[in-house]
Design a protein that fits this description.
It is built from 55 helices and six strands. 58% of the residues lie in helices and 2% in strands. A four-stranded antiparallel β-sheet has the order 3-5-6-4, with no helix packed on it. Helix 13 runs antiparallel to helix 15 and helix 49 packs parallel to helix 52. It is mainly α and 1033 residues long. Its main location: cytoplasm. This is Armadillo-type protein.
Length: 1033
């Protein structure tokens, strides 16, 4: 390739005498490189990027990077000065180079292009044209990072810079909050939304965007679409006046506003967070357009039709206390017997729609509306107001049904987030299964239809806008549907009836069609021998390797989301049984970083299932290398699949799933390890045929190593799997597992991090022979029962966190004062603080993790002792020897006490004044079953339990537990304690029964026998009472 003969342009850019000459040179360079990849590479090698960045740095405007300006952003375009024209041309050139693909990311980062671009996104200091071009350059960089080679963290670095620095957050807020209707501002808003949806993936970034007011600004944009569609709740201004919200209804969304981009950005910020979902619901503009109030149409319209259906015996789903938006939705029929199907056919679908005359108005006038149909009195009820469903949810259902394409998918995504967060009425589940699931399945059905792909698209580094939108719909729909139907049997059944499983299988198979060209081909050159080696030279002048083709990234994303959909569906037994077995090899290949051609278990060679030293392959596969996201999705699918005993013993074993999962346990990424360890929990069950092969492969050492991990999820999953491993194995293997894990570490796992520090200090002092062990004076323990977690004062973060929209949203002082004192707003703020506390308080999260790990650690000890047999005595003695008899009973007793943490504790000095920690039901049950196994051994072990008077008194306080497992475990424990092995044990058995009777256990058992609501508990209590009376006689 001949060297480009244009050095004079670069020289003129560098040594221009004035702005006019520099602008002319930059325009000439732009004409030279736009749309020409080879020329871009040559100009990069000549160092043009460094010159462009220096121009931006030399003409840097004053920015508000350090704080928030009070001015408003009008966004009106104006004529640019010469220095602004220079910046505009430089930004356009950087955007063009970034549009060249991942190969230009290296030199752009090396010259510091991103910081230089970011200084031009502040709308209060820069003309709208410059802000727009800077945002477009950032979007091009973000698009390039999505196609970069695996392992690069360019997107993460850009997101950290953009979303975690206050100045840039304020700039994005100013853009999104602008009330300008100019086309350039609407395009700016669209680009900001695209940046959020593409880059915002981490929880800390999502929380920062929400706290900075970005989510509220997006909510205001969403409310403007409600106004533009004419779907504001009638009389919203009057209903919102007492709360100061009547001035918060925004203007209609202007032309050029992008609803899909707004919904996608909202979905990216909310994700799976209850706290952020509620922030959207109680945003002032959303509350203004969607006030919660009951509404009834005139008696001769829709309500009459609904009542007629009910009187005819044709039931239908009807929202409780329906609001105005509910009447936009069609009636949802409830599944009827076949005998009634002919009667149902006589009634056409009914719904409430706007009249043709009202469609042109900014707000609807519902026919039959009168002021007294709104129950204003209900707004004074705090309980009803807190429990009322926001009209935003039925509106999102209506929006999903009335839009198409990407707007429909994103509306369903936001709706799914709110539904999964628990802010929808329980009866909405039926409506979603009838109104939303079929629409998403129809999008899937359209996507799996055979369509001829343009051969040029398969090898092109760029795709047109229509193709990009079509691919986005195909990629996102399975993921949205998977989130919606997860953990919901009715929705899973609805998706199954719409053949979602079959379509997901087809999509997964399509992603394994060989793609032999995965990276963008090098441009043709007439003189290839004269090409410059791109690996030589300075990093600022060296073009990087080409990235993946867009169609390659599209297939990988489809693979990930189809696996997620299958994982959400196969939990349902009926769906799992309907799954075609020929799809399993494709699932198994998704567990390999470099997959091969999917083959059934019979076609695979046995030699490939042997385990050797794990070395992750780095070669490219024609079927597409699986990134970590695909590996994690495949692990979740296998975990859901392995919940079936039949599939665990047949399908997974026949297809050799064990060894790929074991290899992923040693993957360098912690999230992959976590997902793989979740599958191992099911594969190590005593009836799993893969258990022996995993033990031979060295699973014990790996799990014991992860039990010492700093990651609480890995500790939990490893203890869960070890709990299964020690069940129904030889005592020698049990002792080996305990030795590998370490008895001291096991004690640390089942003790609280702070509450039981005194117990660990006592154990250390006893080993040193020091009988004087200091207790933790900062903690009191009390007897008592219950289940829960109670805090008595303000939160760790509530003192410092402020609900931004309540105070930041501009409005007249009169309405601001009303809003600050409004009971409705105060309730919303109080609930937000509670949700934030529950979701983000690190102490509470650590406490939850500790409790889950403690439960599995106690269950590990229970299974370590084993089932009642001749070897049980040996293992009980071994546990006493390794842990310490007194230490074990002290730990068990500590799990049954109420703990009160005082404020002068060093760790909690900055937190609440007093924290009361009640024992948890699952931990109590695990403690009791440890005692059950001890009592199932020889008589001397039963006598040892009887001698623990304080422990027994604590147990007696849990007979009134609401948890059925705790009550059942107590009955089993008492049955074992008064069990008589033979005639020689009769006297001791009578003494044990007498001691239990003195402690009041017989009376408590008789109460359970007579008054417990569960038949199983009554029968267990009856057997224990008989055993105790027999032993006492």
């Amino acid at each position: 390739m001949a060297r480009i003969q244009s050095p004079p342009i670069l020289s003129q850019i560098r040594v221009a005498r004035n702005y006019s000459e520099q602008v002319a040179s930059l325009r000439a360079l732009k004409d030279e490189v736009v749309g020409h990849a080879q020329r871009k590479e040559k100009w990069v090698q000549q160092g043009v990027l460094e010159s462009l960045v220096k121009i931006l740095q030399g003409n840097r405007p004053p920015s508000s990077l350090g704080g928030k300006e009070s001015r408003s952003y009008t966004g009106h375009p104006r004529n640019l000065t010469e220095d602004e024209l220079v910046r505009l041309q430089s930004l356009q050139l950087l955007a063009s180079f970034a549009n060249g693909g991942p190969s230009f990311l290296g030199p752009l980062h090396a010259v510091g292009a991103i910081p230089a671009i970011l200084y031009n996104i502040f709308p209060l200091e820069n003309p709208p044209q410059i802000v727009l071009t800077a945002l477009r350059a950032l979007c091009n960089i973000a698009d390039a990072t999505s196609l970069a080679a695996p392992g690069s963290d360019d997107a993460g670095a850009l997101a950290e810079t953009l979303f975690l620095l206050p100045g840039y957050l304020n700039a994005m807020y100013d853009i999104l909050a602008s009330d300008s209707t100019a086309a350039v501002v609407q395009e700016q808003k669209c680009l900001v939304c695209q940046l959020i949806s593409r880059l915002c993936k981490e929880t800390n970034q999502q929380n920062t965007l929400a706290d900075a007011g970005i989510l509220d600004a997006l909510a205001t944009m969403l409310a403007s679409f409600v106004v533009a569609r004419g779907e504001v709740v009638p009389r919203a201004e009057i209903l919102g006046e007492p709360d100061g919200l009547n001035e918060m209804i925004p203007d209609p969304a202007p032309r050029g506003a992008n609803l899909a981009a707004v919904l996608e950005a909202i979905s990216a910020i909310i994700a799976d967070s209850c706290f952020r979902a509620y922030q959207l619901i109680c945003s002032p503009t959303i509350m203004a357009v969607f006030p919660s109030a009951e509404f009834s149409p005139s008696a001769n319209q829709t309500s009459t039709a609904w009542n007629a259906l009910e009187m005819s015996g044709l039931s239908s789903h009807r929202a409780k206390n329906p609001g105005a938006i509910d009447y936009l939705l069609p009636i949802v029929p409830i599944k009827q017997p076949r005998s009634l199907s002919s009667q149902l056919a006589q009634f056409p679908p009914l719904g409430f729609s706007l009249s043709r005359e009202n469609l042109s108005q900014s707000t609807p006038t519902f026919s039959g509306w009168t002021p007294n149909r709104f129950d204003a009195g209900s707004r004074n009820s705090e309980t009803e107001a807190e429990e009322a469903e926001s009209p935003l949810i039925p509106w999102l259902i209506h929006l999903t049904r009335t839009t198409e394409g990407l707007e429909r998918v994103m509306a369903a995504s936001v709706l799914t987030s709110l539904f999964k967060a628990g802010f929808a009425n329980p009866d909405r589940e039926i409506a979603l299964g009838v109104l939303i699931v079929p629409l998403l399945c129809q999008l899937l059905r359209d996507s799996v239809k055979e369509k001829e792909v343009n051969p040029a698209t398969q090898t092109s580094a760029f795709v047109d806008q229509d193709t990009a939108v079509e691919w986005a719909i195909v990629e996102r729909t399975p993921g949205v549907l998977a989130r919606l139907v997860a953990d919901s049997q009715p929705l899973q059944q609805a998706a199954h009836d719409c053949r979602a499983m079959r379509m997901a299988c087809t999509m997964l198979k399509n992603t394994y069609e060989p793609l032999y060209t995965q990276t963008a081909p090098r441009p043709w050159s007439p003189n290839p021998d004269r090409d410059v080696d791109l690996s030589e030279g300075l990093s600022t002048c060296r073009v990087g390797p080409p990235g993946k083709l867009p169609i390659y990234a599209h297939k990988i994303k489809m693979r990930e989301n189809s696996l997620k959909l299958l994982a959400a569906m196969v939990i349902n037994d009926e769906c799992r049984k309907a799954l075609d077995q020929d799809i399993v090899p494709y699932m198994v290949e998704s567990l390999f970083p470099v997959p091969a051609k999917p083959k059934s278990g019979k076609e695979k060679l046995k030699a490939t299932d042997k385990v050797s030293e794990v070395i992750l392959p780095i070669d490219n596969s024609p079927y597409g290398n699986n990134p970590n996201s695909v590996l994690i999705a495949a692990c979740h699918l296998m975990r859901a699949f392995s919940r079936s005993v039949r599939d665990l013993r047949t399908t997974l074993e026949d297809n050799g799933v064990a060894m790929p999962i074991f290899r992923l346990l040693k993957h360098p990424d912690t999230e992959v390890q976590l997902a793989a360890s979740g599958v191992v929990c099911n594969m190590t069950l005593d009836f799993s045929p893969m258990r022996e092969s995993l033990i031979e492969a060295g699973i014990i050492k790996v799990l014991c190593e992860y039990a010492h991990s700093l990651n609480p999820g890995l500790r939990l999953n490893s203890m869960w799997a070890l709990k299964h491993l020690v069940l129904s194995v030889e005592n020698s293997l049990k002792k080996h597992i305990l030795e590998e894990l370490g008895s001291g570490w096991l004690v640390r796992l089942i003790c609280d991090e702070t509450e039981d520090e005194a117990l660990r200090a006592r154990a250390r002092s006893e080993r040193r022979g020091d009988p004087n062990a200091d207790d933790d004076e900062d903690m009191d323990t009390e007897g008592g029962g219950g289940g829960g977690y109670q805090d008595d004062t303000t939160s760790w973060s509530s003192k410092y966190w402020m609900w931004t929209p309540k105070y930041r949203t501009p409005c007249p002082p009169k309405f601001a004062a009303l809003r600050a004192q409004s009971p409705r707003m105060l309730r919303a703020e109080k609930r937000l603080q509670a949700l934030r506390e529950a979701e983000l308080n690190p102490t509470r999260k650590a406490r939850t993790d500790d409790l889950a790990i403690q439960e599995q650690g106690l269950c590990f000890i229970r299974n370590l002792m084993g089932q009642p047999s001749a070897s049980l005595m040996e293992m009980v003695d071994h546990v006493f020897e390794e842990i310490g008899q007194d230490i074990l009973f002290d730990i068990l007793a500590s799990k049954l006490r109420v703990k009160v943490l005082h404020p002068f504790t060093r760790r909690y000095s900055a937190g609440r004044d007093t924290r009361v920690l009640y024992p948890q039901a699952k931990v109590i049950e695990a403690v009791i079953y440890v005692l059950v196994h001890i009592a199932a051994s020889v008589p001397r072990h039963r006598q040892l339990v009887i001698s623990q008077i304080d422990l027994l008194k604590l147990l007696a306080q849990h007979f009134n537990s609401k948890d059925i497992g705790v009550r059942g475990a107590l009955c089993q424990l008492l049955t074992n304690l008064v069990w008589q092995d033979d005639s020689s044990d009769a006297t001791a058995c009578g003494q044990r029964a007498h001691e239990l009777r003195k402690l009041g256990f017989l009376a408590k058992l008789e109460t359970l026998e007579q008054a417990d609501s569960e038949l199983d508990i009554r029968e267990r209590a009856k057997a224990a009472v008989w055993q105790m009376k027999t032993g006492n006689s």
